[in-house]
Design brief:
This protein has 8 helices and no strands. By secondary structure, it is mainly alpha-helical. α2 crosses α4.
């Protein structure tokens, strides 16, 4: 974790920009758009119906999840400057919140206890980080996400 007197190194800033540039890749943009419009699951079976392995939706899901898992791994290993990452990459937390209801069951079913642990660890720190700077943000964001989920279910 960084302290207020530290500043990002030039290398950390360059890597952050490279990660941002990757988000602009056309297929990843489509996957991210799909994820936030369509990926609402309360359990693993529902998630598997929304994004079956081998389908375009399943590929989009894994593309979004693995992108943020990699970015969070770089963060967790200290290769990215945490405050800068959290200030400019709120999207990863939204992805984590969508995946979180299914993660325990997914890890058990597929036998991979490490599945998306980097994103989980970063999300736990982000929650503390944002609440210390903007109290109430987490509740407001979760309410907004519940409204999006309700609207998605009505449209279906």
């Amino acid at each position: 974790m960084t302290t207020p007197t530290q500043r990002p190194t030039h290398e950390q800033a360059q890597l952050q920009l490279q990660i941002f540039e990757m988000r602009r890749e056309e297929k990843l943009r489509k996957a991210r758009e799909w994820f936030f419009k369509e990926c609402f699951a309360d359990n693993l079976d529902e998630a598997m119906r929304i994004a079956p392995p081998g389908s375009e939706a399943g590929n989009y899901f894994m593309m979004v999840a693995s992108y943020w898992e990699q970015a969070c791994a770089l963060l967790n290993y200290g290769l990215l400057y945490e405050d800068l990452f959290f200030e400019t990459n709120e999207e990863f937390f939204g992805v984590w919140e969508r995946i979180k209801p299914c993660i325990k069951e997914a890890r058990e079913r597929f036998g991979n206890k490490q599945f998306l642990t980097n994103m989980e660890q970063a999300a736990q720190r982000y929650e503390q980080w944002i609440e210390s700077r903007s109290p109430g943000f987490m509740n407001a964001m979760r309410q907004h996400m519940q409204q999006m989920r309700a609207q998605s279910k009505k449209a279906a």
